[in-house]
Amino acid sequence: MNDSDLILDSINSRCSTRCFTDKKISEDSLEKIIKSAFTAPSACNLQPWEFILITDKDTLRDMADVHPFASMFKTATAGIIVCGNMEKCIKNHEEFWTQDCSAATENILLAANSLDIGSVWTGIYPVTERCRYLSDYFNLPDNIMPFSLIALGYPGQKKNIMDKYDENKVHFDKW
Ligand SMILES: Cc1cc2nc3c(=O)[nH]c(=O)nc-3n(C[C@H](O)[C@H](O)[C@H](O)COP(=O)(O)O)c2cc1C
After folding, report:
1. Ligand 1 atom nearest residue 18's Cα
2. Number of domains in the chain
3. I want to staple 76 with a disulfide (CB 3.0 to 4.6 A). Which of 10, 124, 141, 151 is the partner?
């Protein structure tokens, strides 16, 4: 495979992982994953993101209680909370911050997959009680809004890559 095939394969083989082994992710890999988030595009290049990297076992286990669909944190060996900084939003177009944080979140998932590390995006924003849970837990400043909660770890399950391509959803030059 040439370089571009490898990159495409890494993008196209990403899938959610919800069960992890207890093998730790190295600091080097975590740094690569976090750094990839910063290369995401953002509206007006405002980069309105902040990240909480979690490796503490007790904190990871507590993340399983944030909402009913986050139980994979019982086996995750790391986690990342992508947050939006409301002081860095575009005036009159504030909601673009969610797209910026989505791009950062996806970069994290793709970087993890390229390192054979499993991940799953669990939704936080805009569910008020989930945002409040994390704001209280981490004592976040008022201008910091938790956006996504990502579980990370080496996969303890087989990959379930779905072929989601649907040619009917691709419209060429006109609808
Ligand atoms: C905004 C958003 C919120 C999500 N929330 C959860 C979640 O709370 N728990 C979960 O297990 N998966 C969650 N997912 C993952 C989706 O369920 C998953 O991406 C989808 O089923 C497609 O599967 P794939 O990631 O393996 O391609 C979320 C994904 C997105 C984009």
Report:
1. 11
2. 1
3. 151
